[in-house]
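subagent[fold] <- orchestrator: predict structure for attached chain, return tokens only, no commentary.
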Amino acid sequence: MKAFAALFAALDGTSSTAAKTAALAEYFRTAPEADRVWTIALLSGRRPRRAASSTELRLWAAEAAGVADWLFEESYAVVGDLAETIALILPPPATAAPPPALSLAMSGLIALTGQPAEARRAAILSAWATLPSTERFLYTKLLTGGFRMGVSQGLMTRALAQATGRPEAEIAHALMGDWEPARTSFAALVERAAEGPDSRPYPFALASALEGGPDGLGAPSDWCAEWKWDGIRGQLVARPGAFALWSRGEELITDRFPEFAPLADFLPAGTVIDGEVLAWDTTTGQPQPFAALQRRIGRKTVPKVLLHEAPARLLAYDLLEAGGQDLRALPLATRRARLEALLAGLPADLPLATSPLLAFSDWAALTAARVTARDHRAEGLMLKRAGSAYVGGRKRGDWWKWKLDPFSVDAVMVYAQAGHGRRANLYTDFTFAVRDGDALVPFAKAYSGLSDAEFAEITAWVQRHTLERFGPVRRVPPELVFEIAFEGIQESPRHKSGIALRFPRMVRWRRDKPAVEIDTIETLRALLAAAGGRLPPAPPEDI
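subagent[fold] -> orchestrator:
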């Protein structure tokens, strides 16, 4: 792990993109081949299953360090990162043995999965006792599954292109799809000479957020507009001998949507479609709320009742490949015309349709249409330049997402907890409540949206006003009011309020508003009804 640790130090020590790219490129040229493959896997999110829980690691580290559990927990609360706490609290290595290669360390971690607790404990304690400080920290990060190096997929792709001399687009496509680092060589990974059917998707093109409206985008006639659907982004791949549905996170999700299987019989070989997977309401001909689709996401097998209540449909908005030909360099308008022609020839009862384009003569008309997005079960609008190519990643300027303003309510903070990492010494994680008559009902947690200065001020207030302590959580007087924004709302029997929010965050600290003026549970219920967030009962698990 010595070369990997040096790479981590180089990346962690700079904010320069050019310096990070140069360090990665040098590593991909000189590091052991198996280590290069594992590094690519880790940087692209392919992490093995956790070999030990956080609780086990805390207990074993406290034992190895000879400290009481409470002292370890107090140290963790100050440091804010479990791997860093363990690396700091453990005694120096007992031996000066050179650290193993990254590939060997990863093989060892994989071998621990499923082993009895005592076997895992012995192996992990042995590794901690021999690894130098930086390698020990990285090893523990890999154990926890929370490994990050501040490197985007695009930056890694650029570095690989520099190291290998291959075009970035080819490298990006080679890294897509399903591959196992333990069974893939560096050369095979970069080349990806497929053995058997190729079901890989293309790198997804992403949109940037449009702030302030579209007036600065030029002539409206140069743009296409469609609804921004609230579903799962997916690429449907139909090639000779291969049929697959991939999520934007490069997860193969074909088996979770069995209603798409008939498409394999109708789509011409060599077809790749980009679109949005939605739970569909066959009665209204509109998408169901995202919460309905969410009930299917975590399941590997979908019960018949759920297939009936939340049938999936793919609304397609781009054609990336036709007849085995890569169409991504063609203008969007051309790709869209070919997509519509392809889908027009398919049976109408298939769960596949084009995402409709919106007609508009000027930006004012489009602005008026955006206001009605929630009536169509959409989050807002997508704006795409008609002449744009399909470029993987976030190419600013050609694709924009113009989302509706979020829902928001005013709520009071009732609990506070310290953050992690660089915010370990600040209270940043808060629980909020609304009024229900004379009572307060907690309904959401949020930890983002404020400045560091505001978090520091709130931290000082929490320290002065703590009423009770529950481990790391502090109960405080219901006095500080915040505006909480969120993207969606749904019914949830698991929460005391009966409501769950999607992506809650703090918009501002309402210093101007007393706690008696916060919103009520009835406000949230009215938003729930307006958003159509009420769901049918969950199906029995044994159906």
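orchestrator: received. Logging for downstream: The chain has a mean pLDDT of 88. The first strand starts at residue 208 and ends at 209.
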